[in-house]
Design a protein that fits this description.
This protein is α/β, with parallel strands linked by helices. The protein has twelve helices and nine strands. The strands form three sheets. Strands 2-5-8-1-9 form a five-stranded parallel sheet, with helices on both faces. The chain is elongated.
Length: 286
């Protein structure tokens, strides 16, 4: 397996990703130590986008494994397409040699990262959806940087060790062995100062009064009680886009308590939208 040096301090963010120094340090240390980086935090804190930013900044291909609750580890490694081989055998109109099983082996996302000619960033998204056996067996493969294809008795060894980013929404506890084999960082939801920097990247020409009003309203809405899915950074950005696209919007209309346009852009669940609407009505009536 070929190894490439990645000096600490190389990653410093990307064109659309704002990060603090502590997060930059843990990314670079994880690359230098060749350890998976486990990121936890509520949805919307930028866990997934960090992998995209690393790939952009380091000019590496990005491979994304979206973990499902029903997924087996072998699905992430490779798939043996028995159905296509059976059809080729029955109808005989394929250019493939049905006696060569390897022609019917397709790499999964981890397999793609291992066999890529260029070093990749491998994002394993929402690992907490998988069961403990999947988690631990996956890290065994990532530690060894190889796996076996039993159908053809062949070992696939990584050509280059990928930069591994693993995300968790903390909906389910991860095993101690899993946690012990990763570097860990919790991404807190951005405070208003950090969010202002993020908005500055996405809206470089936005008026300061609009930013202040939107941030004040946004964080007030996030504090509403009983909301299951709080609006996150993505919703805030889309909400501001909706406001900017409305030729009839007047900033003065949002200054009063309880006046929030395009509430459905911020709240994506019906019960959350209803609950937020009710609380805004109470604010207007007070």
């Amino acid at each position: 397996m070929q190894k490439k040096e990645n000096p600490v301090g190389q990653f410093r963010g990307a064109s659309k990703y704002v990060l603090d120094d502590e997060l930059a340090k843990i990314v670079n240390v994880s690359i230098a130590l060749e350890m998976p980086l486990l990121l936890k935090g509520e949805p919307g804190t930028g866990k997934t986008m960090l992998a995209h930013a690393i790939a952009e900044n380091l000019k590496m291909p990005l491979i994304v494994l979206n973990v499902k609750s029903t997924m087996k580890l072998i699905d992430a490694l490779y798939q043996y397409d028995t159905l296509t081989r059976l059809n080729d055998s029955r109808f005989g109109d394929s250019k493939r040699d049905v006696s060569n099983i390897e022609d019917y082996i397709k790499m999964g996302k981890i397999g793609q990262a291992f066999t890529a000619e260029k070093r990749t960033v491998l994002l394993i998204d929402e690992i907490d959806k998988a069961d403990t056996d999947f988690q631990d067996d996956m890290l065994d493969v990532l530690d060894q940087m190889e796996f076996d294809i039993i159908e053809i008795d062949k070992t696939i060894k990584a050509k280059n060790r990928p930069v591994i980013v693993i995300t968790s929404n903390a909906k389910k506890d991860l095993s101690d062995p899993f946690l012990g084999r990763c570097n860990f960082h919790h991404i807190a939801f951005p405070d208003q100062d950090m969010m202002r920097l993020i908005l500055g990247v996405h809206f470089p020409k936005i008026h300061e009064d609009l930013v202040s009003a939107c941030l004040k309203t946004f964080y007030r809405l996030r504090d509403f009680k009983g909301v299951e899915k709080k609006p996150a950074t993505r919703e805030l950005i889309n909400w501001i886009r909706a406001i900017e696209a409305d030729p009839d919007f007047k900033l003065s209309s949002m200054m009063g308590a309880g006046n929030v346009p395009y509430l459905g852009v911020l709240f994506k669940k019906s019960m959350d939208l209803q609950m937020a609407s009710q609380q805004l009505v109470r604010l207007r009536n007070n």
